[in-house]
Design a protein that fits this description.
single chain; three-stranded mixed β-sheet; alpha/beta; Rossmann fold; 14 strands
């Protein structure tokens, strides 16, 4: 298994270090043809507008969209979440190009400016169920986005409480907020849809590697399903399958 990490800008080195702690090989992705050699892809956090401009300059968007459509796992953190969303609001003038594939609407800068960055313990029942460890995860939110709504096929993995008067969408002409809501509401900060995983926070900036382990196991499961489908097809046309499933190494979990 080789995990590609988009290395145009942002915290790609931190993702590579986390993968290394799990014993997983990774490669920095800067050109479209490099995507052909990886089994999955991480789009890191960073400055989403800058990343989009660099991706456009290197003509990466068509290749990234094709990679998502192949069914190979893709994980976006912070700016990577924005990249994967089908819809985005709160963008700068002119907007930015998106890869898409994740049926959700994301607010590009929901939690405010750089000085409003924060850390918080968030409940992660699905992650704990699969990876063990504490019931909460220490989320690092740096000028972070948030998911405002999701489609029917999107699984919500984590949410975060915010004041009800938090502005949900703003532009030069319109501002929408929940004035009549309860004293506290929640926004979505982690989702999964098929081969796509996205988090509004930065797991690569913590020592807790459970999200990386979760993503690697996603990759293993998808590869195994693809292999099983391929093997069934071979047998169905009268050929004998002689291959045996390789033992997959146990990944360490958070202690």
């Amino acid at each position: 298994m080789t995990v590609g990490v988009l290395a145009l800008q942002g915290s790609f080195n931190e993702h590579i270090a986390a993968l290394r702690r799990l014993g997983v090989q990774s490669v920095e992705i800067r050109k479209a043809d490099q995507l052909l050699s990886v089994s999955s892809l991480i789009i890191p956090g960073g400055e989403s507008t800058t990343m989009a401009k660099l991706a456009e300059y290197h003509n990466l968007f068509p290749a990234l969209r094709d990679f998502v459509k192949t069914g190979k796992p893709v994980w976006g953190t912070c700016a990577g979440l924005i990249f994967l969303a089908d819809r985005a609001v709160g963008q700068k003038e002119g907007g930015q190009e998106l890869v898409g594939g994740l049926d959700c609407t994301v607010h590009r800068n929901f939690f405010g400016s750089q000085i409003q960055s924060f850390e918080a313990d968030i409940l992660v029942p699905q992650l704990t169920s699969k990876e063990g460890g504490p019931d909460t995860y220490r989320g690092v939110f740096i000028r972070a986005p948030a998911v405002l709504d999701v489609g029917p096929d999107v699984e919500v993995l984590a949410d975060y409480p915010v004041p009800s008067n938090k502005v949900l969408y703003s532009s030069s002409t319109v501002q929408i907020q929940e004035e009549d809501a309860l004293p506290e509401t929640k926004v979505i900060v982690a989702v999964k849809q098929g081969n796509l995983l996205a988090t509004a926070f930065h797991p690569e900036l913590t020592a807790d590697t459970r999200w990386h382990s979760y993503f690697i196991k996603m990759t293993n499961e998808i590869e195994q399903e693809a292999s099983s489908t391929s093997s069934s097809t071979i047998v169905s046309v009268g050929e004998t399958s002689t291959g045996t499933e390789q033992d997959k190494p146990d990944l360490p979990i958070f202690q």
